[in-house]
Model the fold of this input.
Amino acid sequence: MAYINKLESGKLLKLKNLLPCYEGQILSTKLCSNNILSLELYSLAKGESISTHNLMDQTLYIVLTGILSVSAKEVPEKCYYFIEKDTPSELMAKENTLVLIYTLSGDLVLKNLSFGKVESLLNQIDLVHMSVSSKIIIQKKEVSLTLFSFDTEEGLSTHKAGGDAMVIPLAGEVAVLIDETPYTVKEGDFIILPAGIPHSLIATKPYKMLLTVIKE
Done:
């Protein structure tokens, strides 16, 4: 069973190819939806905008490529902007932009991220010598969102996940093994580790990533 839809799992992909960018157009696709989360992927061509609307729930914007203006605040790639429900929001692409939009139920508490600030995801977790470091943002039975850093030769040993695990590399390089098939994953890449399939991750260079696991 796939928990994350529309994107092929168990295969190395490029961020720039996840959703094409066409001049004068905005594209979107819903990757998953459950009782606490809706996750959508948007591609906005440079200069395109979504007019002001009041957000019905907490919303987390994570810019994968490009620059997104959210109500006049510029959010560069590898940065996030987390805003509360009922906040007026207007989106405009300063460059061709790919953005993940997490719409979160109002009673869901996110840890370790700031409301109303544009901040770099890279700066939210430190690289620790000879260690794996993690910082939990969401930990629920339906979904988890976690920042990880691995020093070289550190990582996660072979295991199976209870859901589809979406890997967004932020820096460095990691060797991923999915059911005996090896991949090298670095900045600009994207991979979904499918639910129930054994996989491991070992850093070949100091590495940081954002991991979203969808379980229901």
In short: The first strand starts at residue 13 and ends at 14.
